[in-house]
Amino acid sequence: YICxxxxxxxSFPVLLGCTPPPPVTNGYVLQNTTLMYGNGQIATYQCNxxxxxxxxxxxxxNNGQWTGDVQCxxxxxxxxxxxxxxxxxxxxxxxxxxxxxxxxxxxxxxMEGEPYKTCLNGEWTxxxxxxxxTCVHSPISGIVIYKSCDxxxxxxxx
Length: 158
Known about the structure:
Blueprint: E1 2-4, E2 7-9, E3 27-29, E4 42-47, E5 51-54, E6 58-62, E7 65-67, E8 71-74, E9 90-96, E10 100-105, E11 109-113, E12 116-120, E13 123-125, E14 128-137, E15 144-148
Antiparallel strand pairs: 1-2, 3-4, 4-6, 5-8, 6-7, 9-10, 10-12, 11-14, 12-13, 14-15
């Protein structure tokens, strides 16, 4: 028996544990290897790169429920496009932060589309591809003529 302000009770209160903590968008729980968390245990969160914690860095198991406000907020300025997108078989040669990028294709590749991508409302716009130059053998022995067309592996050139 236990004495309470309302008199004697015949049992102790049961405090429930918690299942694993809920995920957070753009973040994760550190050391999330426990299947059950005891009442009062803490789950600590961390954000992915480019994101920062807001509201707190942990949640607490409170009688079967996780309490605490954890959010991961994007640190990229509004309207920012971030780093230039990758171009397969090419590189950027001029990059003005958050405005425009000029690309060029590697040797043995030719560009399809405009050589620029532009930052517009937080997104990089513009379609660019670097296509392999295919080869056609000339009637003159030993001479190879390159022309631009659809993608073919460079290994077709012999």
